[in-house]
Each structure stands twice: as structure tokens, then as C-alpha cells.
Design brief:
CATH topology: Metallo-beta-lactamase, Chain A
Distance between the termini: 81 Å
Number of helices: 12
Number of strands: 15
Structural class: alpha/beta
Number of domains: 1
CATH superfamily: Ribonuclease Z/Hydroxyacylglutathione hydrolase-like
Mean pLDDT: 91
CATH class: Alpha Beta
Strand content: 15-25%
Shape: globular
Length: about 375
């Protein structure tokens, strides 16, 4: 028998595919990952926690005035936005403007330590601007061993708001020191302390309002001016100035009934104005009525008469010769950034500077000794 025939009759040997050699190590890696996933997760968490806990946003900022948004929504539910809240950083000073629901966790999420907060300024007393005050005071207190309550600055009526939160948190302010001790959580530091300021007498019909100086320390000056957000009165706008830079927050207002606002905002580096787009809100209104909820539909119709449209905000920014405009307190909710042009409509064409729609985590830096305005994101 020839050698060739012997080879043909020899038992055949199955070849292992090359792919199998690749799959075997991969399977071992996956198996090891499953076996040690708790340990791997522990290591990953340790790394992330170290990066987050040791990061100090304020230490990274150049000298100047800085603004960040910890809440850019309104009472209508919006999963992507907390309710009204903004941050102003001037040197070593950290201020909060309004404290809407969900905003406190965003402050920490932006790398800002709540215990650094010096004071809160309230524009008015609607629930979506005050709902998180209790949590804000708590986080500042327990993170910083403060011996004095958090100061809340606002127009007349702030005393009642503060008293209500202090009453609601009275039991909690007993529990914390009892558990952690006076050295860690001093009893004297819990809660809020109201600091009310007086506004000039209101003129009827509405006339040009006179701003009042309400704060001056460490190179930071703050002025307030009454605006019309009736029946939510008093309501005010704030102007912060530091290191030659300035930012104005409108709070909630109807621009046509707030004479003098353009003068108040004159030359501001940054103008932050609430924004409601009626054409989009009407779509929401029609749909909630169609589903059988006429009460909510009526509320949506009502809010039209005491808010400001993006076009109106752009017009006043142009009149005030502001350098940049941000639309805040966004109504209605915008599920996607792709909807921002529909929200803004022709507002960008009515103002010479940049126009932005505020988002939670958005930041604006205005360096000292410069006209530059830097937009960023602190999330």
C-alpha cells in the first residue's frame, strides 16, 4: 500500500478554529471580572470618590466674577432641570440666588462646597424659588461646623419664610448635634437667619423704580430693584458687581410693567432674565386640556401675564447694552437642546451679543481686567 493511501486511512484530527483561541482568553477575563466584580467596583469607586471629594472648584477659578446655574427650571416638571437657583462667586465669596427644589445637590455636583456659602438672596417667595432652603441650610451647617445660621437676604416677607423653615427643621436641629456632637455640628449654627431690606414706596401706576444698596463687603456690592411679578410681591432684581465686572438677575417679572429695568441693567457684562415661550406653552396647554385636565390648562394660561418672553428679554438686553444674555427659569420644559431655537425664536436677532438658554451646570466666567465672557459647564 502506498504511503499516500496510508495517510488517507489514518484517523483524522479535528483542527481547533483560530477563533476559539481568541474566545478562551476572553471568557477567562469575563469570568474573572464576574468573580472579582465587587473588588473591581470598590477600586473604581475609591478612585472616583477621591477625585470628587478632593476637587475644589473655587480653587481653580481665575480672579474675577463667576456665575453658575444650579437650577434653571420652573414648577412644570423637567427631569433635566432643578428649580430656580444660581451661584455667584466673587473672590472667596460664594452666594446663592434663590433655592428651588433639587438645586442643593447640584451645587455639590459642580464641585462647590455648601459650607462655603456666605448668604442666600431671594428674588421673591414663590415656592419654586425657596423650596430647597431647608436642605441648603442643613448641608452648609453639617459640612462646615458653622456656629451661626445661614443668612437669607430678601425684601420684606423674608422673615416669615425663614421662620417657617426654621420651625419645620426644629426637630432635625436637635437630632444632628445629639448624634454627632457639638464640635462637629454646633447647635448654634442650624437653620436660617433672615436679613430683610426695605424698598421705596411703590408708585401706582407703575413708575420707574429706584434701586437700593443692600450689601457691600470684600469688594462685592449688591443692589436691588423692585420688579412687577404681581401678585407675587414684593419681587426684586439683583445686580452684583465685583472686580469691575457685573451680572444682573431679573428674577421673575413682566418686563412691560417693570419701568427702569433697562437702566438697572445698563452696561452689565451678563444679564440673566427669565424666559417663557408662549408658542410652546400653548402646545402643552392644549394637550393637557385634551387629556382632561382643564385646571392645569388654566394655570398655563394664567402664567402668561406675569413672565417675560425671550424676545422681550433680548430687547431689554439690547437697550441696556449688556454684553451677554442668558434665558433662565425656562418655561415650558425643553426635553432636548435641539428645541432651543424654537424656544428662542427671533431673540438672537434682536440682541447684538451672545444669547444662551440656561442649563443646570452652565457656568459663565468674567475675568478681572478683561471684557471677556467665558461660557462653560461645571458638571
Amino acid at each position: 500500500m502506498s504511503e499516500q493511501i496510508k495517510q488517507d486511512r489514518a484517523p483524522s484530527r479535528k483542527k481547533i478554529p483560530v477563533l476559539a483561541f481568541l474566545l478562551i482568553p476572553a471568557a477567562l477575563i469575563v469570568g474573572a471580572g464576574l468573580l472579582f466584580q465587587a473588588d473591581i467596583g470598590q477600586r473604581v469607586y475609591e478612585r472616583l470618590a477621591t477625585q470628587r471629594a478632593q476637587f475644589d472648584r473655587m480653587a481653580t477659578l481665575e480672579p474675577g466674577l463667576h456665575v453658575a446655574f444650579c437650577g434653571t427650571g420652573a414648577p412644570l416638571p423637567d427631569p433635566s432641570r432643578a428649580e430656580s437657583c444660581a451661584i455667584v462667586i466673587a473672590g472667596n465669596n460664594l452666594f446663592v440666588i434663590d433655592s428651588g427644589s433639587g438645586s442643593t445637590v447640584n451645587i455639590a455636583g459642580m464641585g462647590l462646597a455648601p459650607d462655603r456659602i456666605k448668604a442666600v438672596f431671594l428674588t421673591h417667595f414663590h415656592s419654586d424659588h425657596i423650596a430647597d432652603l431647608g436642605n441648603l441650610a442643613l448641608q452648609r451647617w453639617v459640612n462646615g461646623a458653622h456656629t451661626r445660621p445661614l443668612t437669607v437676604i430678601g425684601p420684606s416677607g423674608v422673615e416669615q419664610v425663614v421662620a417657617g423653615f426654621n420651625l419645620a427643621y426644629a426637630r432635625d436641629q436637635i437630632f444632628r448635634p445629639a448624634h454627632h456632637g457639638e464640635n462637629v455640628v454646633p447647635s448654634s449654627g442650624g437653620g436660617l437667619l433672615a436679613a430683610a431690606f426695605e424698598l421705596p414706596e411703590r408708585v401706582t401706576p407703575p413708575a420707574k423704580e429706584t434701586p437700593v444698596d443692600i450689601y457691600s463687603a470684600d469688594g462685592v456690592s449688591v443692589t436691588a430693584m423692585r420688579v412687577d411679578h404681581d401678585p407675587a410681591a414684593p419681587a426684586v432684581a439683583y445686580r452684583f458687581e465685583y472686580a469691575g465686572r457685573s451680572v444682573v438677575f431679573s428674577g421673575d417679572l413682566i418686563m412691560s410693567r417693570s419701568p427702569g429695568f433697562a437702566d438697572f441693567a445698563q452696561g452689565a457684562d451678563l444679564l440673566v432674565v427669565e424666559g417663557l415661550q408662549p408658542s410652546l406653552l400653548s402646545v402643552l396647554e392644549q394637550n393637557v386640556i385634551a387629556r382632561g385636565d382643564p385646571n392645569l390648562g388654566a394655570i398655563m394660561q394664567d402664567v402668561l401675564d406675569y413672565h417675560t418672553t425671550p424676545a422681550e428679554a433680548a430687547d431689554v438686553a439690547q437697550l441696556a447694552q449688556a454684553s451677554a444674555l442668558i434665558l433662565n427659569h425656562v418655561v415650558p420644559p425643553l426635553p432636548s437642546r435641539l428645541l432651543e431655537p424654537a424656544f428662542l425664536r427671533d431673540a438672537p436677532s434682536r440682541f447684538d451679543g451672545p444669547v444662551r438658554v440656561a442649563r443646570d451646570g452652565m457656568s459663565v466666567s468674567m475675568p478681572e481686567g478683561s471684557n471677556e465672557i467665558q461660557f462653560g459647564n461645571w458638571f
